[in-house]
Amino acid sequence: MTDPIRLSKRLIELVGCSRREAELFIEGGWVTVDGEVIDEPQFKVEGQKVELDKDAKATAPEPVTILLNAPAGIDVESAMQLISAETLSEEHRYGKRPLRGHFLRLTASADLQANASGLLVFTQDWKILRKLTADSAKIEQEYVVEVEGDMVAHGLNRLTHGLSYKGKELPAVKASWQNENRLRFAMKNPQPGIIGQLCQAVGLKVISVRRIRIGGVSIGKVPVGQWRYLSGKEKF
Fold first, then answer.
1. Distance between terminal CA atoms of the chain?
2. Could you tell me the pTM of the whole model?
3. Domains delineated in the chain
4. Phi and psi, residue 10, nearest 5°
5. Which of 38, 81, 132, 156 is packed most tightly, with the most Cβ within 10 A?
6. In 3-state terms, what secondary structure has residue 41?
């Protein structure tokens, strides 16, 4: 009977790599223990079968960006707690394998409107974080807003040309009806509470707000409380 040892040490014994290479192989998801991917170098093994993928590369995993369909009224810290391998959207469980390292050092950007649901972005990529923060005034966001009440005459036209509400000038936005009780709004860098003010200015009461797009990236068919990876083809 042998004592349990670290997976990284067992891998060094098997393939003759350095300690750092072993850690990179494991953190990159290239190592299996009895057929299951293990991405923690400190994982203890005994007599299990340890294998290194033939295509393994001893490089640090690429930074990831995660798109979460957040429930309404949740703060960023609570939203981050929803992200795990188990909450990856079923429809998006192909291509990239979720690794423990994907859920570390994530930074949130582009906060939701108060009590809104929908697209929240968490990223490890400094380039994407810089894009979403430095260029926030230039990036269009799209919302679906459920409303009730009767819109004033020429309400859509007033929204798209700008109007005032309680003495405050409101920005012009792109607005259209999605159906009889849902409006679509597209605007750049929306200030807190602005959607409610826009709706009130044209005689409507907001029931719910959901962000569906930031720039060229939409949340797509991801259930509430689940997430997907940003693909290499998508750009904010």
1. 55
2. 0.83
3. 5-52 (3.10.290.10), 65-136+218-229 (3.30.70.580), 140-214 (3.30.70.1560)
4. -60, -40
5. 132
6. coil
